[in-house]
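Weekly modeling sync, notes
Attendees: S.R. (lead), two postdocs, one rotation student

Agenda item 3: backlog of single-chain predictions. S.R. asked that every request posted to the team notebook include the full sequence so nobody has to chase files. The rotation student volunteered to paste the first one in as an example of the format we agreed on. Action items at the bottom.

Example entry:
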Amino acid sequence: SMILVEGDLSMSGTCTVTYVDPERLLACGHPITQFGSVDMPMTKAEVVTTLASPLNAFKIINTTQTVGAFTEDRASAILGRFGVKARMIPVTVEVVAPKGASKTYHFKVLDNRSLTPSAMLVSVYQTLQATNTAAAEMSYRVSGALDIEGLPAVRLNDIVTASGVNPAAINTALLVNSRFSEVYGNDFEQPVITGLTLKAEAMPERMMATLDSARLSTAEARAGDTIEVEARLNPYQA
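Predicted structure, as returned to the notebook:
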């Protein structure tokens, strides 16, 4: 198996070994991502069952022992090397339910410029979806930090709510992915992300309002003056 996410969440691609020697192996006979040079954990896999289908046959598997890393993903096969350790990004997500109960998830995401943002987006979304209230009218107070080797941590602090199309869980995952991608996708220098820590506190209401109008107490002001602002807000469905 080629691992994309491991830990409390798991995401992998699995296929059959076609060649093996003491140092390396070839598998699949086709690409998984076709990204060329890669760095992903390589594990043994146990096939639980095979589901036959003339349209799309597939296997249900469990990943087991890590034995090395896949270093090439080419058109003809994927190449794995034994004893090599792939670099992963550790992630901790604490989800706090409206009544105060919390659950913390620990997992690692692959370090790949093309795949990591998508894997991070899906993983954060899945942690928020793991509660019975995920589909309810909800907002999330998001806080956390993105740790970067040799640089100060990037802090996250925001309130995310549902929009007309997306529930709050999707918008929260999109927000985290946007902040992560702004750092990880640096065009000048690839940063080394050493960890991501998040806390998402659920609030059972849509924390959103529309600003209808605003006016100032004066049309002219000097530095140091105090100005009153009168604003009219319409809370969601109120």
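Discussion: group reviewed the output briefly. The chain has two helices and 14 strands.
Action items: rotation student to repeat for the remaining queue; S.R. to check formatting next week.
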